[in-house]
Amino acid sequence: MTIHLPTLRQLQYLVALHEHGHFGRAADACAVSQSTLSAGLRDLETALDVTLVERTRRSTRFTPLGEKIVAKAHRVLREAEELSDLVQASGKPLTGEIRMSVIPTIAPFLLPRMLPRLRKERPDLKLFLREETSADAIESLHHGRADCVLLALPFPTGESEQEIIELDALYVAFPADDPRDPPAEIKPELIDEARLLLLEDGHCLKDHALAACNRPEMRANATMIGTSLHTLVQMVDNGLGVTMLPEMAIDAGILNGTKVVARPLKSDSPNREIALVWRKGSPRAEEFHLLAEELRAG
């Protein structure tokens, strides 16, 4: 039996279909028509002489072999990306394209003060940004959809390298008319866990806040409801509870126009670490170190 080698484009179609679970959405992600994507996948199956995807009118299901091929395809595509990275790394640093995923509790606060200077000083750099939760961002990194990730540590990042950009202190935010008149620095034991509002699951800031307080009962009693820090601030401003905010959000003016007051958390670990993360062994590692310096200067 003769097996023909798949093309990178066919592997991209396969990975996109696995990620989106729908031919139309996968085609949109690959910027091709649905018929082109379907034909490409049929050609792939014909070339390999196997069935990778079971198609019905209502669902798309990958065969066990299809799942294994997808996992291998991710690695092949990542290696192909690194071939291009090798060439780019040999030229002028911080030029061309860099795809960076950024978590939602950093993007709206750090990027506005960093991007204008970066555009001015590095005009040949095309920085494509994608806002994702930490877990999704790390998945994008290891599947080759992102070249680097800007997130907050501690967080599991797999086989990666990282450079710390800055420490970001945590603050406790409460209504200005709070009758208990909190002190200049708030110890974790002063926080009423029944009134504590935090971001919903999927946002690492929730885990950083709970870890900083080191009170296990908080995880059970705090309300995980906010979809963004701005939502939490509005809830606090309306007297619905208290929350915890990173210093960068406060410096960026998230409390402007509200009657919310924020004071530093006093604990053994009151900070989260803002870090740039990239794949271990990336040929663009020196470039990412340079990008980390640029971010730090911002």
TrEMBL record:
<feature type="domain" description="HTH lysR-type">
    <location>
        <begin position="6"/>
        <end position="63"/>
    </location>
</feature>
<keyword id="KW-0238">DNA-binding</keyword>
<keyword id="KW-0805">Transcription regulation</keyword>
<dbReference type="Pfam" id="PF03466">
    <property type="entry name" value="LysR_substrate"/>
</dbReference>
<keyword id="KW-0804">Transcription</keyword>
<dbReference type="GO" id="GO:0003677">
    <property type="term" value="F:DNA binding"/>
</dbReference>
<protein>
    <submittedName>
        <fullName>LysR family transcriptional regulator</fullName>
    </submittedName>
</protein>
<dbReference type="Pfam" id="PF00126">
    <property type="entry name" value="HTH_1"/>
</dbReference>
<dbReference type="InterPro" id="IPR000847">
    <property type="entry name" value="LysR_HTH_N"/>
</dbReference>
<dbReference type="InterPro" id="IPR005119">
    <property type="entry name" value="LysR_subst-bd"/>
</dbReference>
<dbReference type="InterPro" id="IPR036388">
    <property type="entry name" value="WH-like_DNA-bd_sf"/>
</dbReference>
<dbReference type="InterPro" id="IPR036390">
    <property type="entry name" value="WH_DNA-bd_sf"/>
</dbReference>
<dbReference type="GO" id="GO:0032993">
    <property type="term" value="C:protein-DNA complex"/>
</dbReference>
<dbReference type="GO" id="GO:0003700">
    <property type="term" value="F:DNA-binding transcription factor activity"/>
</dbReference>
<comment type="similarity">
    <text>Belongs to the LysR transcriptional regulatory family.</text>
</comment>
